[in-house]
Design a protein that fits this description.
Blueprint lengths: L13 H4 L8 H22 L2 H16 L4 H18 L3 H20 L7 H6 L1 H9 L3 H22 L1
Length: about 160
């Protein structure tokens, strides 16, 4: 399995439930993601090809149909993030962000039972996906920044 993808299974994975020794705190992960997620969203909006846009449009439609169940939402969240990272056409940025998204997902899973608005967090991707598909880099970057801020705020509330 490629490095950084060994934890692709969400909360049911034992590694997702237990932080490893020295597990980074949400603020540390968010600090990096706050810089890189908007960069990735803007690049994806500028660089995504037709097949990327088709995939992002498919995910946009899937968002409308997803249940509000935790595991389904977390899997979709991970899929959306990875599709945006792939659309950047920058394998180094993609690899870095997959690793940070894995960490963020692990943190999310630790508090899943205490996070009341997981559905709202995941559904935030709708406007973000639309901005990328519409090639609106500035809007995509702003929405990605807000999404990461929302993660940080939600986690701080339960810690």
């Amino acid at each position: 399995m490629p490095r950084g993808r060994e934890r692709d299974l969400p909360c049911g994975n034992a590694a997702a439930r237990r932080p490893h020794p020295g597990h980074p705190a949400a603020p540390d992960v968010s600090e990096v993601r706050q810089q890189l997620e908007p960069l990735a969203a803007g690049l994806a909006a500028r660089r995504a090809g037709e097949s990327d846009r088709d995939e992002l449009s498919r995910l946009l439609a899937q968002l409308a149909d997803v249940s509000d169940g935790g595991t389904d939402l977390i899997r979709l969240d991970m899929t959306v993030h990875r599709a945006i990272y792939a659309a950047t056409r920058n394998p180094y940025l993609e690899d870095t962000l997959v690793r940070y998204d894995n960490l963020a997902t692990r943190i999310w899973c630790l508090f899943l039972d205490r996070l009341p608005d997981l559905a709202g967090h995941v559904h935030e991707h709708g406007p973000l996906l639309r901005a990328v598909v519409d090639r609106d880099a500035e809007k995509a970057a702003a929405l990605a920044a807000r999404h990461v801020e929302g993660f940080e705020t939600a986690i701080r509330r339960v810690i």
